[in-house]
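Researcher: Please predict.
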Amino acid sequence: MSNIIEIRNLTKEFKVLKRREGLKGSIKDLFSRNYNILRAVDNISMDIKQGEIVGYLGPNGAGKSTTIKMMTGVLEPTSGEILVDGSIPYKERTKYAQKIGVVFGQRTQLWWALPLIESFKILKDIYRVSDNDYRKMLELFSSLVDIEPLLHKPVRQMSLGQRTLSDILAAFLHNPKIVFLDEPTIGLDVSMKSKIRLLINELNRVMNTTVILTTHDMGDVDALCRRIVIIDKGKMLYDNDIEHLKSFFGSYRTLKIAADGDIQEQEKKIKSILPEFSVSKNDEWISVLIDEEKSNVIDVLDTLRKSCNIRDMKLEEISTEEVIKKIYEEGV
């Protein structure tokens, strides 16, 4: 399988005005400007093969969006090389736009007042999709999701989930080589998230489309990504599959307990009892991350039982979400 994206030593810097405080400072800024150089992406290299689904992860401000904008041709790198399906994105934007599809969060590319089918027809003409290919794509969409009720519905009347689903279909309409998805399931309920994840997986399988996914939802990562790339402060921390990543944290287990009383109060109490542990809450469970090389699970449980009325407990392997959190905090 050949590489569709090749990135070598990619760097992007921005000049940020260093503003002075107060009125006097503002007047000085008019005549003398001091700038800081912010390195948003710092010497990143990677190859992505045709048909891969890659999770591009990192905390807010890590440089994810800047990298995606360079991949899509919106930004020009300060230094380094980027080649996508034989094109240099920022130099050949018109030709390159035919090869990619993009969904950015809740920013729709559909025409607000028009029925979905009319937006599809406009995109068909923009991307010069043949009548035969257009008909085949609509048949494929219909086989994967029930789009018939949406086709004649104005976009402005759609729910957030219906609009997101329609945006994803629109991004795949011209059969692009690569689709960039930025937080595609943000704000959606559990049922719609599941439907959209299934849709992305099936479109990737049937069309062999390369998908670059940025998300903070670890459910998206577990459901879609076989490979993840993690960056923080512009630098790459990790590039490999999820199971390989979890092997770094093989001694970690998550102790989940359900205790009597208000869960927020219980979480505060447990954090004060176990200050050296990572403690979080989810639904009715409070999770304690334990490194078994340093602490015994039974000892931790006994400590909690002295202060909390525990009515249920379970022990789980470390989750993808907890692994990513540990990497953000400590690196690999």
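Model: The chain has 13 helices and 13 strands.
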